[in-house]
Every structure is written in structure tokens, then in C-alpha cells.
Amino acid sequence: MLEKIFINLIDQIIKVQNSHKISPGMDSLLSRNWEFIFSEFDGWLILYCITLKQAGGYWLYPMLLPETNLDEFKKHLPNFSIHPPSSAYDHVMSGDRHWIEPCWGNPADFYHSEMPLFFDRQYYGRPKGEETYYEFNQLVTHPLDLHWSEKKGSYCRINELGEEIEIIKIIKNSSVKLILIRRKALDKLLYLGKWVLVRYFSFNRFNTYWPSYDACKSEIYEPKEYDAKFEIRICKDEYVEFRGAQIEKPKTPKEQLLSWRFNSDEEVEKKYAEFIVQDWKNGRILKDYSINPKNFANYFTESDLPFETSPIFFKAEVLDKYKNNPDKYELNERSISCRGGWYLQSYDINEYNQVHTYAVYLARLPYKEQLHWLQYNEEPKGPISKRAFQTDFEAQFPDEKSLLQQLQDVLEDLGKVEIGDEKLRIWAPKGGSWETASKGLYYVNSENANQWHDFIIALANVTNEGFLKGPLKKIASKLGNKNNQLGTLGLLKFILKASSNEDKISIIYGVLNDLQIRRGKGKAHGTWDTPDGSLIDDATKRLNEVIRAIKELKKVMESL
Fold first, then answer.
1. How many helices (H) and strands (E) does the chain have?
2. Which of 30, 36, 131, 491 counts the most CB atoms within 10 A of its CB?
């Protein structure tokens, strides 16, 4: 559904087109209320406009003109002759000669010729009614990093928060066709190409369907409010046409668009939130302290300011946002990234279940993302994790691998075991890789039942869903199995029993089967069964048991 601003814009275009019929008067045909089309609409500019069905109305078409040619161009206004190209390059032939020719003529004229922003393409391989579409010039989309979004129906880019932002909007309805572009994006393009935007224009009104074009008179009109030149052609009191071009130059300060100090998402310089900061350098807790980098110092600067590596602590729920949207966020054990956007270089969780990171990394996040972290900010209940201290301050590898890393290692080791003359392998990651199989598998850091259920489902997916039924059936068959109805875990149980490893059944099959049962009672099937006691402790205990089960299973398979 269109936003209100665009609905209002379409209504105003239609109203202006027919205003002389709604409020007839001596000067209704000559009313200049059509000039609003050159205005800025909440940060948007109209590139292209054509009104449909009714006689009269707008035609607006944009071109990029090298600014060095502007003075010469103005001499010829308001006259123009333009044929919007349907492609950037054409196959041209003359007799037996064939070559490719750009739409602007001689390639040597690239820096002197007008350039189209888009091409009106037609392809009958598209669905009926959608054969005609607008394809934007790569001179526009590539420097601005724009991509067509089917979801938005617009040319978009990903902002620093990982959100799709419409930059070029295409609107088609029964009354009007519109193409709009964000002012800042257009200004950046004009600066980069040393262009100005020329909007060729025609607007006409009819008082009759069959006006007389005899005895017409014309005059030149140059508005003072903006750079343009038009011819006004008047035919009695039956027809009027305003025809010419308007010239648009960049209005956003150049340094805001082409400087590393600014990004395209912010109107002003970067903002910083205020946090509770552990100033370990000076042995104090700072409250409501801005994480602006100027408020911190590094190890090589003599200052009373806290170090930029001062830790900031948060409730574990700060991570839930990233766990719940794995398509947008990549939550690794020590880092977090947003697709196409920001990156948190380091974080960890201490023994008090507090998430912590350092001021220098938190300050690099977009301000809106800082505000998310701020709502979970709390005073430290203890020091940073032992792992973080070893890696970040002692520059050493941690004493032991994390549980998820241990799980990955033992599963990959199990997948390498080859059994029998056929060299059967009984496990492979679901989806072909650990990254795919383990998607959504995170530690449980809160007593949130939903988080625990997600953990159970993900742990079952990464572990049990990787067992290969075909090889297991062959191994079980060689050990005497005649039951063709057994699933992968049932086959594992049979193999353990038939290979004189009954003492391992509870350690291996029991653990993996209980995981599968818990998964079946999870939110995926609506029964919502959770264990008594701490869900954090249960998840940690279960993860350790699964790691042990896989280690023991590997030993059994190696002995077959």
C-alpha cells in the first residue's frame, strides 16, 4: 500500500490537471499551480511523470546533462526535441557493416552528451500486463549501490541497520505513472558525474476535445523561484501548453555526501548513547557516560580518560533480538553482524550470565542499535569472562574450546569415520555444511522457554538430522537386523546392541532419543513441554551430554 505522501501527491497531480474544469474562470487555463511538480516532497523528487486517460496533464522526462554544457543548453530552451531511448546500446547496421552504438551517439561524447537515467523496456516473456518495465541505467544504480527489490517494487539499498531503503520509487496506477528519487541520492549522483538534472516538461489543458489551433500566440516564461525556461502557447480560450525544461542542481552540501565523516543514512554527525561503563583504568563505575570516542583514550595516550577497552555489561536478553532473526543477523560466539550493515567486533558472556563488550566496539554501531543495547545495560556483577581476558588482553588462545565448537568438532570427526569395505559414513551435516546445519543454534542465556525450545530444535537439527539412514541400514543389516521400519535412532540402538555395546545405549541412544522426544514436545508441535529447574542449566547439561554421546558413538563405529 502506498504511503500517504505518495497518495496525496497523485491526488494533487490529478487535481491540477483538471483544476480548470472544477473552477472555471478567465485565467483557469493559465494557472501556474502545475509548478508544484518541481518541488521536493518529504525528501523525494519527481524524475518522471505522465498522466493517463484524460486529455491534457503532465509529461515530465529526466536527463543528466554535463554541467559544462549548461550555458550552451540554456540558449536553446525552451525548444527541445527528445526521443527517450529504450536501450543504452543498439545494434546498428549500414549495408554489410554492423556495430554497437551507444544511445548518446559517439562514445567520445560521453562527457559532453545528455545521459538517460532509465530505459523504457519491453519484453513479452514477462507476465501479461507486465511486459513494459523501467530498467535503470547502471550509471545510476552502480555508484549508488542500488538493487531492484521485488518486495518493495523499488530500487533499494541496505542501510547500516540492515534494512531495505527505497531510493528510487516507481508508481503505476490507472491515473498516473511516477518515478521518484531521494534528494540525497540524486545529489550524490550529480556530484559524482558532474551533472545537472534536466527535467523536460510539457503540461497542457483543454477546454474542448477539439480545440482550434488557429490564431495561437506564444510567450517565453522564466520563473524566478527556480531555474527553468518555458514557452506558453495559448490557443484562444480552448487550449494552453507550457513546454520547456527545468534544471536541478545539487542542494545537499557536497562534504555530507562525499566524505567519510558522514554516511548516507544520517543527517548530522554520528550520535552516541550514554551507558554504565566499567572504568577499570581508574577503578570506578561511570554512569550515564557517553561512548563518544573522544571520551576515551588508548594505551599510548597519557590521559585520565578511561581506556577505549572499558567493558560495558548487559543482561543476556540483549542477544534475543539477533537470535530471533538469523536471516538478518549473524550471531557468532564472539561477534555479531547485520547483513549489509554494522558489525560488532567482539562480545562475550561472563560467569554471571552477563553479556559484555568494549566501548570502542559499541561506539561503532549505529545510534539506533546502541539504543537497543542501552535498554539492557546494567552494572557489572563480576569481571569479564576468562576467555575474553585471555584473547583480548593476554593475546592468548583460550584454555579450552567452547561447547559449540566442541560439538562441531566431534560431529565432523564422526562424519569422517569410514566403516567396512564399503567405507560407509553415517553422518553428514544437514544442508551440506556446519554453517547451514547449525543455523539458529545458540546458547540458552535466559530462563525464556521460547529460547530453550529454539535451542532444542536447533540442537536436534544439527545432530540427529545429520544421521544417514541408508548407510545405517546397511550396517544394521550386516549385524542381523530384519526390521525395515526402524528410523535412524532405532538403527543406532540396534547397532549398539548387536555390536555388544549395550552399556553405551543409555549414553548414546538415550541422550539422542531424549533430545528427539523433547523436540517433538516443543513449540513446533504445540505441546510446549519444558523441564523443571533452570532452563539455562538444562541446555548446558544437554549440550555436554550430546557431545559425550557423539564421542562415544565415534568410538563404537571405529570398532566395527
1. 17, 24
2. 491
In this structure, is residue 20 part of a structural domain?
no
pLDDT value for 52: 84
Which residues in the chain come in under a pLDDT of 50? 266-267
Residue 193 falls inside a structural domain = yes
Tell me how many degrees the CA angle 171-177-182 measures, rounded to the nearest 5: 50
Contact predicate 556/502, CB 8 Å: no
Q: Specify the DSSP class assigned to residue 498.
A: H
What range does the domain containing 407 cover?
A: 403-559
Kindly report the number of other CB atoms within 10 A of residue 297's CB atom: 17
* 3-state SS assignment for residue 337: strand
CA distances from 483 to 120, 127, 493, 500, 514 (A): 65, 52, 12, 19, 22
CB 82 within 8 A of CB 65: no
**Any domain includes 73:** yes
Q: Please, what sign has the CA dihedral across residues 380, 381, 383, 385?
A: negative
**Which three three-digit cell numbers place residue 503?**
552399556
Rg (CA), the chain: 34
Q: Please write the tens of the pLDDT for every residue from 420-447.
A: 989 999 999 999 999 999 988 999 998 9
